[in-house]
Every structure is written in C-alpha cells, then in structure tokens.
Design goal:
The structure is a single chain. The strands form 4 sheets. The chain has an 8-stranded mixed beta sheet, with helices on both faces. With about 475 residues, it is of the alpha+beta class. It has helices at about 20-40, 80-95, 130-150, 160-170, 185-200, 230-235, 320-335, 335-340, 380, 420-435, 440-445, 455-460, 465-470, and strands spanning about 75, 100-105, 125-130, 155-160, 175-180, 210-215, 215-220, 225, 245-255, 270-275, 280-285, 295, 355-365, 370-375, 390-395, 400, 405-410. α2 (about 80-95) packs parallel to α10. It is globular, with a radius of gyration of 25 Å.
Length: about 475
C-alpha cells in the first residue's frame, strides 16, 4: 500500500475554536471524574488532618481488645451508624436473654471518620439566601411543606430581607432567610461516650462463614454490617458509582468581638446555612463554651471544576486549599463587616488569629440522594450468604437462634445529612438484623424508600446525581 507524503508546507493547521476547547476540557473532566467514582475508595489513610471535634481525644479513642476468631455480629465502622447498630444489638439481645458477641472493626481511632470530622451541632437553624431566585424556590417548598405536613412544619418561619438582616445581624445584601428548630449534639463525644458505656456494660468475655481478614488477625461471622459510609464501596465493589466518597472541608474559627455570645437562653443558640449560588452551600454553628468557636464547613463549589475535585476523593490527610481559603475569609462577609468587629488573636495549642483549625473528612454521597439501609442482596454484595445453620445460636433452647438469617447489611450513603439519618438508620438496621421489625414498629417510622433492593441498585446511576443536584 502506498502512503502519499506531503511537504510540510502543505499541512494545514486549524486552530481550535473556544467551543472545541471547552468541549475537550469538559470531556477530560468527565472522564477523570468517572474513573474516580468508579474506583475503590480504598482504606482510610493514616495521619488524617487534625479535627477540632476530636480534641481532647476520648479515653477509648485507641481502645483495642484481643480479636476473637469468631463473633455473632461484626460491625465495620465506629461512627454514629455503627455505634447505633451495636447498642441496639447488645441491649435488645440482652433484654431477651441472649448472650451474643459483637465485634466492631475500625481502620483508625474510634469515631475518626465523618462522624468525628464533618459533623456539626445543630440548634435553631437558619437558611440564609443571597440569591433571590433560590429564595423564591425555597419559599415555595416551605409553602408546600406546611400544606402537606402542618404539624412538622409549624416551626419554619420565612423572613424577608429587611427583617432577616435586623433580626439576625446579617449582611446588607441578604435577600431573606428561613428559620427552623433543630437538635444539638457534639457527635464525637456522643459516639465515644456511648461506646465507653457499652464496653463497660458488656465486657469481652462455629463455623467460619464470612471471613474478615484484618491487620490484627482473621475473624468469622454469620453477619457483616457495613457502617463505613464513604468507604462502603471498598468492601462492596458493586456499590462503586452508587455511594460515592466525597471530601468535605471544615473549620473552627473565633467569632468577631461585636457578635452576640450564646448564653443560657436557648434562643441565642443558632446554626446557619448560607446559599450564594445554585449548587453547594456553607453551614455554620457555634459552640456554647470555650471561645464560642464558629464551626464553618462547606465551600463545595469553590473546589476545582465546580466541586468535582471532591468527588471520589478519600484523602483526608489534608484539605482543599481553595475551600480552606474561602472558609477562612467568608464569615465577616456573611454577617457584614460592620456587624463582625475585631477578631481575637490568641496563642495556644491551635493556630492564632480567627481560624483555629482547618481539616477535612469523607462523606458518602448516594447517587439517588437517599440513604441505603437494609440487607444486601447477593447480587450487590457479590458473595453468597451463609446457610441458616450458621445463624446465631440462642441459649434459650435447642434449635433456637437469634435474629434474621445470616447475611450482609448496610446503613450508609447519607449525602452530608448523617446527623439527621445515621442514628435512626443504625437503630432500624439493628432491628432488621435481629429480626425484630414488627417489635421495633419499623413500619410506623422507617421510610421504605431507604431500603436496599436490587431494583433500586440497578436504577441508581452516577450520571443522574448532577441532574438531581441541579433540580434543587
């Protein structure tokens, strides 16, 4: 075959048009993102960035027991979900006269994942808007909410610009806000406090079906409960692209001297959500003691490629420089420079100036924005279930067993709303594992839409996530 050869002067160079360049850049971003979200999250990295929530460390932070060779239940993950599951398993089994063994596995210290890193206290909550279109959409949703669920929505109030600015001392370009009530919690102290009580209440005292290999040895169990949220797809390959790890960023900051200090009056304790653009938001709460630190997180859209850099990113040993810069400088802007006042530069264990600490943590984003709770079908776990004969044996009588038939279970994919969903999801999951759905009255309070099913798994697609976020 002859291949014609042309002089160099004959070659025509066509410059790329701006639209071509933009298309190629978007294609590269999509291909990079697709590869990240379809890959394994891996294991949590050692030496994560220092979380202000986790200091001082709990006495049980590094608790290590001798690893048994077998357990009735193995829970992977020691955050809010895992702790809720373990507490329910032990307390309910004990109340029914069963002596069961539960092992909790954790890659790092107790409660060192998102529960102890990205979570915030929630109190009187304010959604603050700087975009009029977003505010109008939010007001429409509140109207619908109040019409459909008037009792649940009775604590939601809408404040237009002038009243919002005066009442809450916000910046002058605030277009309005929506107030509601919420609970208050220090997630790290909450989780580690419960774990400490469980260790005291239930001191450590077969057949190898599921076999878990850990750096400390091998353990077998008829039940594996996945409570690892953003890292769930490490052990569950079929959930890659369904629950996507996402690196969130958090900060602890000293408030300006002109801002009011929370006191014993509950109405002085507030949290804020600031909306400045269609995608992403910043969220803020204030600690009730110490230096009354502002705990500010968010900045999703300030990361590279409109936040896509955070998708599939499980490196919490550092934080996003761009988001860190945004979080470090935006608070006086939200409240207005005239309302902020001077900062309080102090010396000590933490950084001087307004920003005491910046760190990150890994969330688990469900591509359909709904948590995944329940038994994992074999098509999703990728493993066959142990036989019924391996079920947890009851001490009450021959042939009796404790709980549901053996299998794998999960509660994960909270999409940044773990403080709302994780504890009750863990409680519901424990009732499922114990075969107590009727006794636990799950039909009265647990949403079936959150259950894991093969149909839902097939329908959930990563490409639908961005569309869902844009619809909000």
């Amino acid at each position: 075959m002859l291949v014609p050869s042309f002089p160099q002067s004959w070659v025509i160079h066509c410059p790329r048009s701006p639209s071509t360049n933009e298309f190629l850049d978007n294609l590269h971003t999509f291909q990079t993102l697709q590869a990240r979200i379809q890959g394994s999250p891996g294991l949590p990295l050692p030496n994560p960035s220092r979380s202000f929530w986790c200091y001082p460390p709990s006495p049980i932070a590094t608790h290590v027991s001798k690893l048994p060779t077998h357990a009735d239940f193995v829970v992977v993950g020691s955050g809010i979900t895992g702790t809720s599951v373990v507490r329910r398993l032990l307390d309910d089994a004990s109340a029914e006269g069963h002596d069961v063994s539960v092992v909790m596995l954790e890659a790092r210290d107790a409660c060192s994942g998102a529960s102890g890193r990205i979570s915030v206290r929630e109190v009187d909550s304010l959604d603050v808007f700087y975009n009029s279109n977003m505010f109008e959409k939010a007001k429409t949703k509140i109207q619908t909410y109040k019409a459909d669920l008037p009792f649940d929505a009775e604590h939601h109030e809408v404040y237009e610009a002038k009243e919002a600015i005066e009442k809450y001392r916000l910046a002058s370009d605030t277009v309005g806000c929506i107030s509601s009530s919420a609970g208050a919690i220090h997630p790290y102290q909450f989780v580690t406090g419960i774990l400490a009580k469980l260790l005291s209440r239930y001191p450590t005292g077969s057949n190898p079906y599921y076999t878990l290999s850990t750096p400390r040895g091998i353990i077998t169990t008829p039940h594996v409960i996945h409570a690892t949220n953003g890292w769930a797809a490490t052990l569950l390959e079929k959930l890659r692209g369904k629950i996507i790890p996402f690196r969130g960023n958090m900060s602890a900051q000293r408030p300006g001297q002109s801002l009011p200090i929370p006191d014993s009056n509950p109405t002085s304790h507030r949290s804020f959500v600031f909306y400045t653009r269609p995608m992403g938001y910043d969220y803020l709460t204030q600690l009730p003691t110490g230096e009354y630190e502002f705990m500010l997180g968010g900045g999703f859209a300030q990361d590279g490629d409109e936040g896509y850099e955070a998708m599939g990113n499980t490196d919490d040993t550092t934080y996003s420089t761009r988001i860190g810069t945004h979080l470090s400088g935006v608070l006086p802007r939200y409240f207005g420079e005239n309302n902020w006042g001077e900062g309080v530069p102090l010396e000590g264990e933490w950084a001087e100036g307004r920003v005491k600490a910046l760190w990150s943590g890994i969330l688990g984003i469900s591509v359909d924005l709904i948590p995944w709770v329940g038994r994992l079908p074999c098509v999703i776990s990728g493993r066959s279930e142990p036989p019924l004969s391996s079920a947890v044996k009851s001490e009450k009588g021959e042939g009796m067993h404790v709980g549901a038939t053996p299998g794998e279970w999960i509660a994960a994919g909270y999409s940044g709303e773990g403080m709302v969903h994780a504890w009750l999801s863990g409680k519901a999951l424990a009732d499922m594992v114990l075969g107590r759905e009727l006794e636990g009255k799950l039909g009265e309070w647990f949403p079936d839409i959150m259950r894991v099913s093969e149909k839902r798994w097939k329908k959930a697609k990563a490409e639908n996530l961005l569309e869902a976020l844009n619809d909000d």
